[in-house]
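ok, trying the design again with the full structure, not the truncated one.
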């Protein structure tokens, strides 16, 4: 069981570090219904990743032997790493449409600023599906599927890591209602100002990590 948790650490860290999700949760904490909106946003992630994890756990638990071999798990990790590196290279090379993309980002941020819980839930669900966390989740679930035991624990840790980046500012805002808003706003501003560099760094770091981890396991 301990080996499973250790093997999941790269995936858990990758799921935790999601700049767009963290910034979205912080932005929603400054709306008229801060906790309802932020929790609805988080629930969108929880639903998307919970369903995927539940499917893998159900299939893996129904078998008397691991769902994936060690070699298949390593192959999945290697592919995920290369996908993340490709996404990083795409971000590095993409410059022509930056003004248009920035306008679209501002429009989305403005809609979040006026969000209701149903809209925040939909935004969370959509963002959960269209960000690099999906391949990272796949790599983590491959580790779970290759394990003899601990499927529920492993999948639960992955889902918890995926929503922790949003739960942390929510808890901070709740526990420190006076000091937290200003500090959270500074965090959001920093993420927004350097989002491209942060995303490229995250993709390069975890892309390299998963590629190397997969190659070592092959």
């Amino acid at each position: 069981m301990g080996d499973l948790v250790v093997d999941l650490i790269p995936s858990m860290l990758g799921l935790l570090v999601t700049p767009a999700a963290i910034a979205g949760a912080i932005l929603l904490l400054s709306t008229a219904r801060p906790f309802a909106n932020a929790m609805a946003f988080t629930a969108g992630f929880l639903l998307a990743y919970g369903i995927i994890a539940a499917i893998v756990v159900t299939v893996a638990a129904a078998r008397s032997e691991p769902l994936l071999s060690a070699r298949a798990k390593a192959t999945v990790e290697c592919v995920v790493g290369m996908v993340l590196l490709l996404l990083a290279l795409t971000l590095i090379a993409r410059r022509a449409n930056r003004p248009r993309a920035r306008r679209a980002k501002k429009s989305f941020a403005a809609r979040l600023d006026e969000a209701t819980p149903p809209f925040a839930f939909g935004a969370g669900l959509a963002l959960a599906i269209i960000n690099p966390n999906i391949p990272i989740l796949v790599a983590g679930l491959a580790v779970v599927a290759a394990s003899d035991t601990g499927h529920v624990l492993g999948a639960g840790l992955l889902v918890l890591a995926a929503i922790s980046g949003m739960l942390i500012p929510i808890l901070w805002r709740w526990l420190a209602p006076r000091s937290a808003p200003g500090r959270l706003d500074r965090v959001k501003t920093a993420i927004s100002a350097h989002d491209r560099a942060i995303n490229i760094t995250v993709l390069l770091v975890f892309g390299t990590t998963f590629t190397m981890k997969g190659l070592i396991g092959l």
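Keeping the full-length input from now on. The mean pLDDT is 87.
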